[in-house]
Amino acid sequence: MNSTELTADRKLVELLEKQKKDLIIRILRQHEEAQSEKVFSNMLLANLSDLFFVMTKDFALVKANDEFRRLMGFSPEDFEQLHLDAIMDHASCERIKELIAGGEFKNFETELITQGGERLRVSLNGSTLTMESGRILHMLVAKDISDIHLMAARIREAQEQLIHSGRLASLGEMAAGIGHELTQPLNAILLFARNSLKLLNQETLNKQQLEENLQLITDRVKKASFIIKSLKSFARKDEPETYPVDINRILSNVVTFMDAQMNLSDIDVEVQLDDTIPPTIAHDVRLEQIFLNIIQNAIQSMGTTESPKLTIKTFAAKSIDPESLLEKNYVVASIRDNGAGIHPDDLSRIFDPFFTTREVGLGMGLGLSIVDRIVRNFSGFIKVESAPGHGSCFFLHLPAYQERK
Known about the structure:
CATH topology of the largest domain: Heat Shock Protein 90
Oligomer: single chain
CATH class of the largest domain: Alpha Beta
Helix content: 40-55%
Strand content: 15-25%
CATH architecture of the largest domain: 2-Layer Sandwich
Shape: elongated
């Protein structure tokens, strides 16, 4: 072999060695990059405030971040036997599987069950990843919203207390009428009881007159009992559950209850209730609160009116739902007075909390705000027509209930 061939072979060996070295360096760099990505991914998952966990195609847990382990109480050793149905109830588990089958999903509210059996309210996002090897992994991210639900429950509790306080305030405003209504049967009971005692002391007992007196006493006791029963009904705290309610019955009860107060104010009351209207989904105590507040406001607005008149009607109507902008069937109750009316500048603010046109100390301005909130909770709405010096009319629209066949 001559020198030229040796030189060529040496260069070939050097080239091969250089390529081998470059290949090793590239492999080491790729390994280092993969390790860096793995370290970065682990750091990212460790610092993620949400619960992150990965499951196989069969929903067996294979990986989770520190927040998942901290809140759920499971250790990495538990993952080998941990499936989706072990951390949530059967219905939620089946729903998650349906959502994943449909692709990526977001903001599904459910409850995760911790190792200790406690329930954690979460908002869940999920997606599916298919690896190059063909392996399928489901990635789920859960945001703990238990504090949000706790705060919402406290807000609802405060609203319930506010509504109850409004009812008691309305009863306080009607104290004079209630006192007058109770005084009448009590005075009659006293009068007929004394008359009966005198009849018993007579030599000849007038049995017929004595029976009439006792019957009148019985009637007055029933009347007083009805008033007290109505007071208890209006003053009691209600539960928020809803059911089909006949608003004609509720309106009749409220008008009867407020009859004494309207008589004291010399108010002419006209009631026109449509017997053919369907019920609405509501709560009778809440509806009493609505009608009580609006009628009470109407009575006060007619305080200086020469011939006060209150007109109450119910009817069925189709109207546009302000939320969905769809036409729906409604049961409507209209309450019209011929009082002072509402100034146009105040008309848009009457449902604002603490807004009132009364003098200081005569009201907190919560009545109509509570009414508006209750009606909206029943998926209804209120329209108001009013002009200064020409009275006001409140139209309460409540969704008509149709029994499913």
